[in-house]
Design goal:
This protein is about 40% helix and about 20% strand. With about 220 residues, the protein is an alpha+beta fold. It has one domain. It has a four-stranded antiparallel sheet, covered by helices on one side. Helix 1 runs antiparallel to helix 2.
């Protein structure tokens, strides 16, 4: 190693090692490059989890927003049908009473007006009692597509704290006996397929995520006429 010798003012010898400085400088730069490589590795490991997190936020927020929209439109449809006269329920002039047609058109027109695929759905002409169940998978809708259930003869106990409704708009069992008072209303249920993106991203990372294939809402309104 090249040594340069000098002297202090007091006569002591001073040895300078310029190559040591160069070596230390190179060692520092090498360590900095190693840190950069480590950061790249950490980023590559964290990136899939970050993508999963971001996709999950957008996917679940979109699903929640869509469910709120369907809930609002099902309530509007139930209120409109419940406000229509019930005189044509026994012998409608067409394949469905006007109240059922009104409720169905409110839902379908809302979907079309908001650029939501209505799957080419048409009102069912084969009711079960006072329940019309319409299902469609057209216009490129993936299975199970869109299902609309309208029950004009839905009933529940007058003592119920809430107006219960299920996906098929089937009335709950009444346990109050012959003295129990029943409220007759209209139930509207909407089931719409939702293509989750979160599940596909999670499967790439090796996770098995089971999510509902449809977003389901139901609303009940008391018949007024």
């Amino acid at each position: 190693m090249d040594k340069r010798v000098g002297a202090r003012t007091n006569g002591e010898q001073v040895i300078r090692l310029p190559h040591c400085r160069v070596g230390l400088s190179r060692l520092a730069r090498s360590g900095w490059r190693d840190d950069r490589a480590a950061q790249l590795v950490e980023f590559a490991v964290a990136l899939p989890l970050l993508v999963l997190f971001v996709v999950g936020i957008f996917d679940f927020s979109n699903a929640f927003t869509f469910k709120q929209k369907l809930t609002n439109i099902s309530r509007d449809a139930a209120r409109v049908a419940a406000g229509d006269p019930a005189s044509d329920l026994r012998s409608p002039s067409t394949f469905a009473p006007a109240s059922v047609i009104d409720a169905f058109q409110i839902i379908d027109n809302y979907l079309v007006a908001n650029n939501i695929n209505d799957c080419g759905i048409n009102l069912s002409s084969s009711p079960t009692g006072l329940t019309w169940t319409s299902t469609a998978t057209g216009n490129g809708c993936p299975n199970p597509g869109l299902t609309i259930v309208i029950n004009r003869g839905y009933y529940f106990s007058s003592g119920a704290a809430t107006q219960p409704a299920n996906v098929n708009c089937q009335p709950p069992a009444l346990t109050g006996g012959s003295t129990q008072t029943e409220v007759i209303g209209t139930c509207v249920s909407i089931q719409y397929v939702y293509p989750w993106r979160f599940g596909r991203i999670a499967s790439v990372l090796g996770a098995n995520t089971v999510l509902p294939s449809t977003i389901t809402v139901a609303a009940v309104a008391m018949n007024e006429n």
